[in-house]
Structure prediction request, 184 residues.
Amino acid sequence: MTEKEKMINGEYYLACDEQLVKEREHAKDLCFEFNNIKPSDREKRLEIIHKLFGNTGKDAWVESQFYCDYGYNISVGDNFYSNHNLIILDVNKVTIGNNVLIGPDVGIYTAEHPVDAIERSKLMEYGKPISIGNNVWIGGNVAILSGVTIGDNTVIGAGSVVTKDIPANVLAVGNPCKVIKNIN
Prediction:
């Protein structure tokens, strides 16, 4: 099995693998190009996002600055909007539904490293997928950690750190992020 296959399967893999390094460099080159295009050049910006993401719904928009590791593991639905400074570490799948709004300075991190220092020194890492449902609003300065699912119609309050699944139809805030009320 290749290191890329291990990565996508959520197994330990070597990020310094030559193929993965080339793919990250390609994605980072596209991010660099995207981040240096005039905001008014909408066609060119959309062209790059369509090249970068694995799947892009209609009317998806990403503001600069944007950074990701690979891009091809990112899928966004229709009417997606991301404000400035979105970072997606997509060593595993990131699936974002329709009508999702993401505030500024949000991080979506599928990447994990071993907690054990000896294991970590072997330069192994792994990732767990992240899924964000439909009609979700992620406030500014939120961190979403690996393996998390956020249900439909949910709001994540600004500054939250999402470490565990959040159900549908709720308002959740804090560090760690917790449900504070249901939304009808």
User: Anything to note?
Assistant: The chain has one domain: 3-182. The chain has a mean pLDDT of 97. The radius of gyration is 16 Å.
